[in-house]
Amino acid sequence: MQLDTLYQEIILDHYKHPHGRGLRDAADPADQVGEAHHVNPTCGDEVTIRVATDGDVLHDVSYDGMGCSISQASASVLHELLTGRNMAEAFEVHTAFVTLVSGRGQVAPDEDVLGDGVAFEGVARYPARVKCALLPWMAFKDAAARAGVGASPTEVKA
Amino acid sequence: MTTIAIPPGMPQYDDVPGYDVAAVRADFPILGREINGHPLVYLDSANTSHKPRQVLDVLREHYERHNANVSRSVHTLGTEATEAYEAARGRVAAFVNAPSVDEVVFTKNSTEAINIVAYAFSNASLRADADPRFRLGPGDEIVISEMEHHSNIVPWQLLAERTGATLRWFPVTEQGRLDESGLTDLVNERTKIVSLVHMSNILGTINATARITARVREVGALLLLDCSQSVPHMPIDVVDLDADFIVFTGHKMCGPTGIGVLWGRAELLAAMPPVLGGGSMIETVTMGGSTFAAPPARFEAGTPPIAEAVALGAAVDYLTGLGMRAIQWHEKQLTAYALDALGSVPGLRIFGPEVPVGRGGTISFALGDVHPHDVGQVLDSRGVQVRVGHHCARPVCTRFGVPAMTRASFYLYTTTEEIDALVAGLEQVRKVFG
Fold it and tell me: Among the four residues B12, B243, B312, B359, which has the most C-beta atoms within 10 Å?
């Protein structure tokens, strides 16, 4: 298998220069805030996602973590794709990302929905790495639920 | 330069046994595989070893010619299967120089073997008439170390929870050695069992146990050594080692998965209550109660992994044929070569002993701040198979302040060319993530 199908430039860019990294307090004290810390027990990767929202719009998705290029780039892409979106759109993107990464390479990504997230198409072909890519997204779901904006259940076939 | 002459009559360097590695590799069909367009470079034998044709043939032949259940049939096949199973026990006993063949209990793996001992303690603790050496309660202590595999941590944590005993542990030094400085405090008259790894699966450290054994004897505790990583790689003699129990697993020593060994002193096994109940482990059964068979049968409830045991016997023959001293020497040379070669990679940090003394051919390292998953992935694209992660020894990662490590581990079939392939692969990792 070609290594660059997995480590696409976009992924390495997000890994080396992460966007919006660091946990932040909500700019608006009235925001609902939720946080979730997820761990991949097989490799020790960790990520914390914090969501700040007024219930309609995701004002901020901040994060911190420690782990491989795939999990950390995925958190950076998550931040970039979801911050500023309304909740319904955010969950649509969430579903599209999970579907892509769990799709065993059989799902064609839609760049209009997924933006830089399309780079994770290659990850779907490496079963051992799917969980790395999903780690921040699963933590996001929990964080959102804790902020009182419940997600519709997502099937994960990892 | 000073030349040190070995006095006549002592073993000379020339006497070091060896074997033809290329010929040995031809015994292992899987070593002919290609991975991602590259020849397989398998550096994950501490995880599981490959199996030579001689072992695979025996496994197949057993099912094709002698398949039957053991210890319960008078028919010919049943007799053959039982004889093969018990002959394998004899081979394993001889391999570790066990004083009696009945001291070898077949288990599923090392994990199960440790759990049998832990649950024997647990069961004995419930009975006032049990052997006091196995009775645990509040105030009693169990001692392990910070460099254990999870399989030698969790069973003792659970045992401590069930009995109210206290779990204590040896720390690990910065060089990756067992810190014995607190030995007399740590192992004391309250200690009932000390359970330690003989060779670390993550740091490669081989623990010198003599001082600890002496202290264990002084306080009247028992000593279990997890030899999962040592029995496959060096001559092990349970009499010399002077432990009370050792455990090891077949699949790391050219045998199949699903078969492991608990060796225990006959007198101790005889004093231990059973753990799993079922067929084969009984003497008589009435509806009112049962009495139990003598060891090893007492600890082998149910149909055992028969073909796997027989194949483990074949693995022992294979290893004995090459010679455990020859295997040990081969790996020592590889380890010295690899420590040098890895030392030449910029930004590489070795965890554990950096000299090929008191250590085996298992080397864990970090490459700058590149995550081990990424290291492993790039290496895999070049056919190099290493293990990445916490290696079921998370406290060791915590001790060295990293979430995960990359580990290369060698065996009797590993070559220096494979270590060169690892080093070349690491150069590519640096290019991709530099």
Answer: B312
